[in-house]
Design a protein that fits this description.
Layout: E1 5-8, E2 14-17, H1 27-40, E3 42-45, H2 52-60, E4 65-66, E5 81-85, E6 110-117, E7 125-129, H3 130-136, H4 139-145, E8 149-152, H5 155-158, E9 188-191, E10 193-195, E11 202-204, E12 211-214, H6 219-233, E13 239-242, E14 249-253, E15 257-261, E16 270-277
Parallel strand pairs: 2-3
Antiparallel strand pairs: 1-2, 3-14, 4-16, 5-16, 6-14, 6-16, 7-13, 7-15, 8-9, 8-12, 10-11
Bound molecules: succinic acid.
Length: 283
């Protein structure tokens, strides 16, 4: 029998206890962890001590690894993207609500983020449930968005133009990695409400970073509807603030959560290792 102990965290997510990832995970425990991931959207592990090879091996049990096109890679492990902030840097990576890779035709399933160097205080990550966000909408809004599609793009965030999100910060340019790739990507379209490929539940699938507009609505209508949906998505009732400690790991599902890396630790270094997993087309 699996010794895995799954404890819900407030707002969204669950902490997984009773497993040591460095020892490998039995098939039975792995199935329990998969169930928790699908149900809760983000899972957390504490007091783990895994090296880069173990991080990669755990990730490969879930799906193929998506080698990040934009972020600087670990010098020895190209599968691992570095999400770092240096003491002299003011801005960080991921410092606003978003979900990764919605600009891809087959958005990444999720990311496994391992804490490597943490500030003394601060640097928490917030997560929000897009299952709960959808559920919280009144019926008339659910009807309004049923069947709508939204356009997503990476260019306004990672692209090379001087007014893109990262180029207006000191986390852009060579620090983030290889921004020019974003300019070659085409916009993609996804349903505003998806049926989650693992859980079968409905989830809201728009986000303030990468969604540029709702298809077939004029700009004003699209902006008004997105503002309404973002307000539901960010509601505190389904947000969890995850406090990192040495040995912490967060594994989130991009299709059912948003996340936001808080930038409240000026003058200190924060280094995280991120592996992102391939996903699938969303319907
Ligand atoms: C990210 O958006 O992937 C970064 C999350 C974090 O650094 O906490």
């Amino acid at each position: 029998m699996s010794a895995i102990d799954i404890r819900r965290t407030d707002g969204v997510g669950a902490e997984i206890h009773g497993v040591n990832l460095a020892d490998g995970v039995s098939d039975e425990d792995f199935a329990a962890i998969q169930g928790a991931f699908a149900e809760h959207g983000v899972i957390f592990f504490r007091d783990q001590d895994i090296d880069e090879n173990q991080h990669i091996a755990f990730a490969k049990r879930w799906a193929e690894i998506n080698v990040n096109r934009f972020f600087a890679a670990h010098p020895d492990y190209p599968e691992i993207a570095l999400v770092s902030k240096e003491p002299d840097q003011k801005d960080n990576i991921g410092g606003g609500w978003h979900t990764d890779h919605s600009y891809d035709a087959e958005p990444a399933m999720g990311s496994i983020l391992v804490a490597r160097e943490l500030p003394e205080t601060g640097g928490d990550t917030m997560f929000s449930s897009m299952y709960a966000a959808y559920e919280s909408l009144p019926d008339d809004v659910k009807e309004q968005i049923d069947g709508l599609k939204a356009v997503h793009s990476a260019r306004q965030i990672f692209g090379e133009a001087p007014d893109t999100y990262y180029n207006k910060t000191d986390a852009g340019g060579a620090r983030i990695g290889n921004a020019s790739v974003a300019d070659t990507l085409q916009d993609v379209v996804h349903p505003v409400v998806i049926t989650h490929p693992l859980s079968g539940k409905k989830a809201l699938y728009v986000n303030p970073a990468f969604t540029t507009r709702i298809e077939d609505l004029d700009e004003e209508e699209s902006d008004a509807l997105l503002t309404r949906l973002y307000s539901a998505a960010a509601d505190k009732s389904h947000v969890h603030r995850f406090e990192w400690r040495p040995g912490s790991i967060a594994f989130w599902d991009n299709r059912s959560t948003w996340h936001w890396a808080l930038n409240d630790y000026q003058g200190q270094r924060r280094v995280m290792h991120r592996i992102t997993l391939e996903g699938c087309e969303l319907n």
